[in-house]
Amino acid sequence: MILVKLEVIGMQRFSNIILRTLLIVAVGISLILSWLIWTNNAKYQQGVQSGTIQTVNRRSVSTTKTMNEVFAPTKIINNTAKSQRLIYNYKYSSVREIFQQLKQAHLSDFEQISLNDSNRYQRLLHQKHSLQLVYPTSVTVNTIARLTSQRRLQQRKDHDINRIVLVLKGNQHLIYFLNDYNFAIYQVQERDLNYQQIQKLIKDNNFSVPVNTQVTAHDVQLMYLKPLKLKPVSYLITVQNNNNYISNLLNSKQGADITSHKTEGQVVYRSGMYRLLNIDNKTDMATFNDYSKTNIPTNTPDLFEDTYRSLVKIGNPLNGMYLFNYDRKNHSFIFRNYVEGFPIFQQSKNGAVKINFSQEGQTILFSKKILQVPVPAERNAVRLPATADIISGLKDNGYNIHNIQKITIGYKWSDDSQNHDIVDLTPTYYIKINDQWKSYADWIE
């Protein structure tokens, strides 16, 4: 009987390996065929327009997200009459779909109704029959106005916000913009918002866990009230060719020659006097410097728009990529890939992409590793404790809980030990202390 069980287990493992291998082969063939079609199309286009150099716009192929999708909120918190829950839909991005509904409404009569009142702020966060669209970082009211095409929402003086609250019952027709750091509450009149469609999107969720948005001294922390289980996932990855980035980032209208210089494990490409592309072949990280871009947009919506154009210019796919951190003081943006509604950490020190503007020029740091398609993962679901237990664990290991800036659940990026074309993503807690993100395990080591 034991031998039979061992044989069955062995056959199941063997079948999983075979399925995984076949899927990788199939995806590989698909990528090769796509490349052949792509390159043949480029040659065909060149033949049609003789005497001109026709280049295929790779960005139009890889970029499938608009600006208001890349800068959409990343979490939905639904307040019912009895509980507060984080919800998500594995089939599509419900938070993005609800955010899109704001474009169809008409927003006006912006006014500040509260400041530095943590009690009132807490009450609004827990208002029954309401919905929160939550950003992982600060954005601004005027940026939201630009993203949702709301001209009447534009303010002379811009304001930082972290979340948008929609009241789903009653006839108030009000939307609130909230700042988690000074507890400012801004009120906006709305009309023509499709509440029926929003309710439909809420009910269509297939992931729901109880949470508590807890106001602290100078911030709001999302607390998971009970342990939860999340599945590890694995993805097939590809490393983009250097030529793609040379074409997208260094080609100039002036036709300047592109030179290259090799050092240990790195290649530096230069176009003219102002643009450099440094590629580290060991880490598959790239750094692009444009010393001619010294003019920083004076208003935040224009800065966000410039950032989006830079993101598109890289040429990497934007599917699953969202803004994770905006540093207004240093004009810096960090983007992370998201999976199952949670951010990916340890892909690099700076997420998937970091874009920085300064009077010395623009700098873009990005990873050449691109997530392609999920592959079957053979690992069991990971049980994550309630957030209160994580805080207690940090305290027991000598950390001052008042130094904890943020806690979030994310996926840890690690290369597969058996296949270099696969990356394993494992759910775990990440904590920000002293402006540094580390996993819970790394903090308590």
Automatic annotation (TrEMBL):
InterPro entries: YycH. It comes from the Bacteria. The chain crosses the membrane at residues 21-38. Keywords: Membrane, Transmembrane, Transmembrane helix. Residues 22-438 form the Regulatory protein YycH domain. It holds the Pfam family YycH. This is Regulatory protein YycH domain-containing protein.
